[in-house]
Amino acid sequence: MAPWFSAAAVLPQLRAEWHLSPQAGSWLALAVQLGFVAGAVGSALLNLADRVPSRVLILVGAVAAGAANAALLGAHTGAAAFALRALVGVALALVYPPALRAMSAYFTRGRGLALGIMVGALTLGSASPHLVNGLGGAQWRTVIAVTSALAVLGGLVAALVGPGPHRTPAPPVRPAQAWRALAARGPALATLGYLGHMWELYAMWTWFALYYGGVLRAAGSADVTRGAALATFAVVGVGALGCVVGGMLGDRWGRTRVTELAMWLSGGSALLLAALAGAAPGVVLSIGVFWGFWIIADSAQFSTIVSEVADPAYVGTAMTAQLALGFTLTAVSIALVPVLEPALGWRGIFVIWAVGPLLGALAMRTLRATPDAARIAGGRG
């Protein structure tokens, strides 16, 4: 997954070299997510995660992502870079959903923790560009080359992993199953919860550095760029631990309960920051780290729930479709911030972000009261 955030790590350098406007830079950041949505929709319609061995899909996707990422070294315009970044997203749609599917085929007990560890790895990948920037940055060509090589290496490692003991036989191609898999009451409620979670997650990850830079600037900080980058690394990176804790609680306490709790705490953190406009940087960072822990702690549990309540023959398709819907929504919430923030300020943005998890928490509470709850986390709901 290294190429996903490779351009984000060196975006200031790319803007300077290719003479990109701030708007063009934002589109470059969105390109991977838009490409991922396109790839996930295509994969779900073809039921690829259920019909093709996971290690084959991951190998093909990882090598393709590495190649598209490496092609940035020969790009000279923002348009070419956008197309290549979108291709990275399309390729990674063959990596992330099949990896979740493969993990679910290895675990019945402890599945929430297993998927939580995997999503925790994604969280560390999200945080790493901010660490690079906080430590002084790196020459962008080196970053692109290294992340491309890591993608290929990851694909080769995945190729060594055989099918799990709970893998089901390949089903026939049924494009309609992509959406039918999520239409039943249980998967539909889990997906509504997931959408509430995703409304807030990637927007916060994308824009926290800009917000916290403003907090530091208002406090008279001498090194705003470095301080904001290191703070954002802490806020996003702590979510890896949140994913592990969320997985443990999901297995032992129940997935609907831990997802509801995480979204109440996450949405509440956004509202608290909205109420504390003008607070000292230390106060804001403390709340931000708490927010970063809980904003992602529930993420893997939504996929785990789908793996438990969806048609076993099309679990991979259901996971892929859920991810496609979620990442579509993130593109909207990310793009709205530059449009709304000048009029509403960060206080208004945080209130808007909080709406998603608060509605998502209600969806998970509703799911806990349905018969499908008996099939989740060994009957714990």
UniProtKB/TrEMBL annotation:
Regions crossing the membrane? 26-49, 56-76, 82-100, 112-132, 138-161, 182-208, 228-249, 270-294, 314-337, 344-364
Topology term for the membrane: Multi-pass membrane protein
Where in or outside the cell it occurs: the entry states: Cell membrane
UniProt keyword list = Cell membrane, Membrane, Transmembrane, Transmembrane helix
Q: What InterPro entries does the database record attribute to this sequence?
A: MFS, MFS_dom, MFS_Efflux_Transporters, MFS_trans_sf
Query: Where the protein is mainly located, per its record?
Result: membrane
* Residue ranges constituting the Major facilitator superfamily (MFS) profile domain according to the UniProt record: 1-372
Q: Where is the signal peptide?
A: none
Domain of life of the organism encoding this protein: Bacteria
**Protein name listed in UniProt:** MFS transporter
